Fold these 4 entries.
Entry 1:
Amino acid sequence: MIAATKKIAGGLVATALVLGVAGCTASEPAKSPPAGGPNARKGAAEAPGSVNRPIGDGSTVYTGPQPNVVKPQKLKPGEKPPQFVVFSWDGAGEDSQKLFSHFREVGKKYNARMTYFLSGVYMLPEEKRFLYTAPQHSPGRSDIGFGDLQGIKDTATQVRAAWLEGNEIGTHFNGHFCGPDGGVGTWSVDEWKSEINQAKSFVKNWKTNAGLKQEEGLPFDYDKELVGARTPCLEGQKNFMLAAKGMGFRYDSSGISKQIWPKKTDGLWDVPLQLVPMPGRAFDTLSMDYNYMVNQSGTTSQGDPSQHTYWGDQMRDGLRQAFDRVYQGNRAPLIIGNHFESWNGGTYMRAVEESIKGMCTQKEVRCVPFRELVDWLDAQDPKALEWMRTLDVGEAPKEGWTKFLTAGPPAPPAAPAGVKPADGSGDEG
């Protein structure tokens, strides 16, 4: 299991809206499904079975293109966009609760592929903790502890199988430091680069660091596969993005937004968590289990047991309301964040599982990882995406999607005769 020193690292709590987010986080290696097998999706890219090129010490192995991934297609003129839903997991790791392996099975059952933001220190054993030096902290410090040998082996098993099933392995970085005293929100661009490189290193060298050289490697080149992240407590996004855009990253999910279509910031897709309903309350909260919890039981994760069922239902129903208003409205992707934690009796894990079942089985819904979402966004006409961004939360095109997307944004008014256009183009007179 993950070392017992792991703990919740909470964030700031506002009266009406929780903005802080915690970063958290099988004995026989699971046999991955063959490319093109029962878990393959239509249009999926299949990994050649003959490719098996170890990288470095063999902790990672290039095995070819990821299987079970749907290639993006550009919308046809006037075509209604699909409803994307992204379920993501901060600090993904397999401990004694076995939640990583459980939700892999849930995903396969309900056709949901997800993003797992792996914490690098979960692949680093406690006795090697001094290999990690967090920015502004002494060597060997981590607010979520480190791995132990069984936890590292189990996490590697789940990461390996998850990737082969078409899920994404992102990063939640390492020590999960929050707040003003050396937290990630205080880090410079260069400090973020150090943190990113260390997170990669712990995944690329886990077999050597843990003395598990006989274990099977992870089936991907992490330098190429790692394209996205969520920062601890949603802090430090600006400098992280400045660092990440030159390091192979394509998106970030550390922001906060209402339920509208995402946009690019500094060359990266900004795909934030969203403000979603809190049923029975007069405010929205963030689309994450931790934020529902803090609005329900405050600073404790072990609140009144008599309220556990109600609290889980409240989260499930809030997420369903959020889903319904985009599914029937502007079709903006729904972004949901979670942790492999049994807070308040595991009620949020139940809520997430019921949400996956209720959403991912609907017509025209695609439950996909962030990577596949941004692949699709990149394949679209940027002007069409910007036009869809004009639709507000829950707002469907008044005259239908076909007319809305075919018409496109209105042309800018013509400049009066003799007046130079604002962009400086046109005749000089």
Entry 2:
Amino acid sequence: MWKQILSKLPRKSQKPDQDLQRNPDSGPNTPSLGSGRIGAANPAAKRASAAVFPASVIAGIEPLLPFKDVSSSEKMNLFISKLSLCCVVFDFTDPAKNIQEKELKRATLLELLEFVSENPPKFSEPAILASCKMCSINLFRVFPPHCRSRNTSSGENDNDDEPMFDPAWSHLQIVYDFLLKFVTSTSLEAKVAKKYINHSFILRIIDLFESEDPRERDCLKAILHRIYGKFMVHRPFIRKCISNVFYRFVFEVEKHNGIAELLEIFGSVITGFALPLKEEHKVFLWRALIPLHKPKSLGIYFQQLSYCVTQFIEKEPKLASSVIKGLLKYWPITNSQKEVMFLGELEEILEVINMTEFQTVMVPLFCRIRRCINSYHFQVAERALLLWNNDQILNLIAHNRQVILPIVFPALEVNMQNHWNQAVLNLTLNVRKVLMEMDDALIMSCISNYQEQQEKMNVVDEKRKEVWEHLETAAASLKPIAGNTAVLVTH
């Protein structure tokens, strides 16, 4: 199509005087179509574009005309014509291919972006249809996310951790900017546009979040957020689709590039939830957000996830105990970095939890914290001990010290005797001092109980040692069976 247009462009004439007579507006400094600038009065270009876009389709409007050269009543028709012109897509894997055509399309896209940014007249239904069609062709059909950002046909890529940047971004960025301005424009009526910005369109927008280009995901985040804000009728569908992405990520594939961006959208959505929270929102917290703590790649989106969870608890504090139970369920036993993140999120939750909810989970919670205090990974132990530096958490502990102190005090004693890291030892001493100041009598009782438990354990260890020694002596006194050699295992 573009070759057909460019092939009919005027070439350098051998009779410039005759050309000037035919077209007095043209001259030696008039920009050509191939330069990427839009020629306003080129009859050959008009004939070429008219051959591709018949007058019956575009109401006789020449798509290469600038908007300033047509009347206000014709601008919407020209807008549709330019959108049709931008429905042609190119292969950007070869930079030397279709250079002039790509430049022409880019210039036209910039014109369209400028038009929708300057408070245009109300968009007609054909204009909305043409806009959605142009965005769909450029974003969905030709460049799906799984093949647009990375070529995976030859097997696994050696640089999977490095972001891949789309070679077509010079065009895609303008299309995304156009779509964002189009959706947010006051000239777009939601009750009309919802027919075209429909479930199918939104679903494909969400599918694009798998793109490996971070610039693209950032654009998609802004667009989907604006669609959610403008089209109230689509809000339940958007929430359902995002939930499905999370479910598939957690329970099936554990690979998706856009989890952080989708959580960012949901973070702002949660702040707008009305009280009391609907049951569907609580289900989303329990079935989607809390299980998102399970994947190994938690660190990529942990900040956004933690924010969403905290927003839920601030909306309805009774959810705090359910969230803590969920964290304990998915607690990482063999991943120390995730343990540090979990402890950080626990601190944020404990800062806003009420006393009643805290008391329902404090026993299993501090049993887990006790194990973290004794962790041989010094960062985990440090993070657990630093919880005592938080005044709100210290207040919760003080009001429930009869239950909590007997749980955690033995862990402090074990650290003081066995831990290898000096920073952990110093923090342990500080926490022990704080607890002594909190309730000296209770701590003395804990010390006494700890010593009794140690004595009992020593007795058990001695008995076990005696049993092994007896077994070893008995085994050594046995005569070996002919043909077999006895092997004595010492302990």
Entry 3:
Amino acid sequence: MADRPQGSGMPEKGTPEYDWLYGSKSQTPPGDATQQVPAQGAARPDETRVMPVARRDARGSGGQPPGGTRTPAAAPPPRPKKRRWRPRFRLGLIPLLLLLILVYLAGVPLYHWTTIDKVDAEPDGNRPDDQPGTNYLIVGSDKADDLTKEQRESLDTPERGGTNTDTIIVLHTGSGGRTMMSIPRDTLVEVPDGGTQMINAAFASGGAPLLTQRVEALTGIHIDHYVELGFGSVINTVDAFGGVEICPKQDMKDPLARLDIKKGCQEVDGLTALAYSRSRHVTALSDLDRVARQREVIGAIGDEALTPWTFLNPVRYWRLNEAGAGAIRVDEGMNPVDLGKFALAMTGKSQTCTMPNLSAPSDPNRIIADPDRAPALFKAIINDSTVPKAACTPTGRAR
């Protein structure tokens, strides 16, 4: 570019105005030239600063001042991870099953309780006072109206409602332990009008109330509850278990009882168990041996009832309750709890005895309570104390 003539109004070369307009290669700027402030270093007092952005919640209610820095929008919260679906009932399945089992175990006996016959067993006249513990009078009758036609034909018995008994047992429970005492059916007892009669005749003539009265008069034991078992209770209960084990001490063949079995422990069905407990024409002590076998069958049924399979198998449990309810009668004062206690008392180990006895002086085919040994057994039951071993023998005879 050509130099312009002097005096043309343009700034002269070398002047600050010339350098400002056309630039200058001088490394040292004039003292009044505008200089670039270095980016780093200590801040000057008059330097303009950018204030930090204030949080929205720290600002006043007046809002953001004009020209202020806007707070960036908050990031959306992270989405929750998808959980795999699991059935809600899994955690409560076991308690639910346990509840259903308990309902079944309690409901089945309660239902069958409504089908059990109730009888009046309250005796007339004076009775012994209440005594500690609980005393059950168990009677085995010839009640056969619950048997099937095939069962009656096997037993050669007609359909009848139970007018005779060959099983009379007093079951005592209490702090002194459990004692099961048989009273032989041929036992002679005094009657109010004078004279004597066999104790089972009371059942035939006066039913449960008169039999209860005779037992209380003979023993002095207050009877709290009455339980009558028919033929079907033994047959159907044993069959519901699939059989029970008995251990005859000799071969037994008794046509009158429909019995033919060999010596030794063996599993038998309901009909054979009933025949075994009723036979009285094979062994030497006749009725005294029979009452011992009756207790043996009752104990075998109790052992089967305590097995876990009884409660784990719903079909077996139902059949057991059905069999028992169909051939049992109880006193009118008994309730489901009392019956449950009776069922528990029939299971497990008990001290088993036959009432201490002697042959009757008037008839060797009849027996009487031994006046020397029987009172000790009766007193132990009355007082709920331990029964003396000398007074508790299988046949009731002195050792």
Entry 4:
Amino acid sequence: MNNLNSLHTSFYAIGLSYKKADAEIRGKFSLDDAAKESILAKAKEQGVEALLITSTCNRTEIYGFAAHPYVLIKLLCDSTSGSVEEFEKVAYVYKNKEAISFMFQVGTGLDSQILGDFEIISQLKAAFKRSKKQGLTNPFLERLLNSVIQASKRIKNETELSSGATSVSFASVQYILNNVENVSDKNILLFGTGKIGRNTCENLIKHTKNPHITLINRTKDKAEKIAGKFNLVVKDYADLQAEIRTTDILIVATGAQRPTISKELIYSDKKLLILDLSIPKNVSDDVSELENVELIHLDYLSKVTDDTLERRKAFIPQAEAIIEEIKRGFNAWQETRKFAPTISALKKKLKTIKDAELDYQRKKIENFDEYQAEIITSRVIQKITTHFANHLRSANGSTNEAIDLIEKVFRLEEKTFTEKE
């Protein structure tokens, strides 16, 4: 394939996400760091001007310039175990303005599986850094990403799109913070260190500042791996009953098929809060009959997260208004970029006319004031080009025609239009 020229390419966003692709298909198109580097290398060989690659558990996407989207689709499929046929069944392809809008939606959390989840913006930043290292960025992509980052920051600061608990692990920690006094002094026991247990553990450490967290897991080495990361205490499964007796908060996330915490295991003469984060329930319902025990089940915490997400929807219009404002700024910059070479060529043409005229007058006029003539003519040229620039800036969709007319009238030698609608 020949080197791509920006005159003949468009900006595309191609990819797949949780909306149409199930976990198995997303897995086939998932990209690790080595695969991303491989795609960038191939793209560079093919003369692709700029490219951005993201791959998370919920989406895999490529943003870039190509003569046809198939160039980007093939780059993705050649570096994964997914086929073009599989991709086409679940894929989306956006072009130019639609691709720009899509990146704004993704980067601001409006297209996330959990509305308002801003984790993707750090992925986009990392993707740009990787592409820049390979020389696969351009001013358009850099300006676009910076605009998306700006929109993301403003939505975080000016709306409540990302407020409240949206995961069970975070909701459980929020519940503890809201309902337990002096939580940093309490003994916390986490029973079960699967995915939910790990996430809960991280949230506990981050938000409670509590050093008294003990981990118990049926397989002790799994608990020790997590404990080592956070410098926590690990106890044997055999110590479970004794540990429950001394704890203030028990979090159960064992993932067993039947209850692992029964009424008989609990002998507590002080208040005990139990959070059951498991499906199916891992704490027997009759535990709530114990006088000092408060039992909170996953279904309650799930409702908290559902309510949070429902409340977040109210802030979508506000977020979209911020996006539109910043997108207008980006589009204005893009329009300016379209005609900047024409204005530059016009200025050069006028300067040529000026220089020829001054040279003529210099020969004709005695005591010709070189300094004043230069100042006056340069200012006239600046005013003329500013008028043309302002006209092109407000051309409202007819920029290309206006550029063509200017080039024809002034016989500008080069075709200077560099961006395609």
